[in-house]
Amino acid sequence: MRVLGIDPGSETTGWGVIEGVGRHYQLLEYGAIRSSQRQKFPARLLQISNGIEEVIARHRPEACAIEDGFLATNVKVTLKLGQVRGVAMLAAERAGLETCEYSPRLVKQTVVGYGNAEKHQVQEMVRILLSLTVAPEPQDAADALAVAICHFHHAGLTQRIIAAEARIKLTVSAATRRRVPR
């Protein structure tokens, strides 16, 4: 499976693409879409959308994992982040990708083992997990890779649960079938 991870931000939106199966994955590419505060916000949203669409066209991922929003103390910042997330999800949906959202705390817990980990700790664990010689820069790209790694861990679990539930239903339905006398 190939996963696009996205760390949305109104100034810097990080992205990363990894490929693999289960907990075995490798880095394909990562980067960031940067916009200027001097640009009007709708122009920044368009730039982010175009950037994500280019990455999707280049790598053709099957899934998109995006960091879920958090409640900032500044309401305007929270709203802008929500709009960036919306643009990213729209680009993924347009491309027909399965889109999953993960909270920042779950991403840190999955990648670092501690839900309150600091950014440099996430960067270092991403470096280790992807067997890189240096930590990914900028931090937004490292965060996006962490979101993609989180998806590999949790999507596999979800698929195993769905498969187990299907086996249980088959077993139950086979056990409860009755023959009707003719």
Would you kindly provide a written description of the structure presented here, covering whatever features stand out?
- The chain has one domain (2-176): Nucleotidyltransferase, domain 5.
- The chain has a five-stranded mixed sheet with strand order 3-2-1-4-5.
- The protein has helices spanning 41-59, 75-94, 104-111, 119-129, 139-176, and strands at residues 2-7, 12-21, 24-34, 63-67, 98-102.
- It is built from five helices and five strands; from the N terminus they run βββαβαβααα.
- It is of the alpha/beta class and 182 residues long.
- α3 (104-111) crosses α5.
- 53% of the residues lie in helices and 20% in strands.
- It starts with a strand and ends in a 6-residue tail after the last helix.
- The mean pLDDT is 87.
Under CATH at level 1, the class stands as Alpha Beta
Q: Please report the distance between the alpha carbons of the first and last residues.
A: 50 Å
Order of helices and strands: EEEHEHEHHH
Tally the beta strands. Answer: 5
> What is the overall pLDDT average?
87
Per CATH, the architecture is 2-Layer Sandwich
The helix-and-strand class reads alpha/beta
For the record, the count of structural domains works out to 1
**Helix tally?**
5
Based on Cα principal axes, name the global outline: globular
Report the C-alpha radius of gyration, rounded.
Answer: 19 Å
Helical percentage: 40-55%
